[in-house]
Design a protein that fits this description.
Elements: H1 2-28, H2 35-68, H3 91-101, H4 106-136
Helix pairs in contact: 1-2, 1-4, 2-3, 2-4
Length: 137
């Protein structure tokens, strides 16, 4: 179960990193004049959307895992009855999941991740078109 969610998280993360390259390749073949600016705008907006999806999915997948382990999220906080349906060997895993779900929410995690992904979305088209310009001349 953890492996499936981890693989899906990795796929989304790889998609975030590959998308600006795919956008640059598509923009390079287009007949437009401002290919660099267009691909910067499209790749940055795509990276922003995908990073919010990634942050939401990581939070939502942890909630799904808690429910699959039998943890009751509907009870009052700090109630020991939440662990009634959880197997004894899964208590530590559920406690780790609870620690990771508490704290800041997924929107704030997404905003923090944008500090890394927005420069990546901007620099990728710039570097791509600089390399293409040097190789064509």
């Amino acid at each position: 179960m953890n492996t499936a969610f981890g693989i899906l998280n990795l796929v989304i993360l790889i998609f975030i990193l590959v998308t600006p390259f795919l956008i640059c390749k598509k923009a390079y073949k287009s007949p437009l004049k401002n290919k660099t600016i267009l691909s910067i705008l499209i790749s940055t907006s795509t990276v922003i959307i995908l990073s919010f999806i990634f942050a939401w999915w990581t939070d939502f997948s942890q909630v799904i895992q808690l429910k699959l382990y039998g943890y009751n999220l509907d009870l009052i906080p700090d109630n020991s009855d939440r662990f009634v349906n959880v197997n004894q060997e899964d208590h530590e895993v559920v406690k780790k999941l609870l620690i990771s779900t508490n704290g800041i929410g997924w929107p704030l995690k997404a905003i923090f991740s944008l500090m890394l992904f927005i420069p990546f979305g901007i620099l990728t088209p710039v570097i791509y078109f600089l390399i293409k310009r040097k190789s064509s001349s």
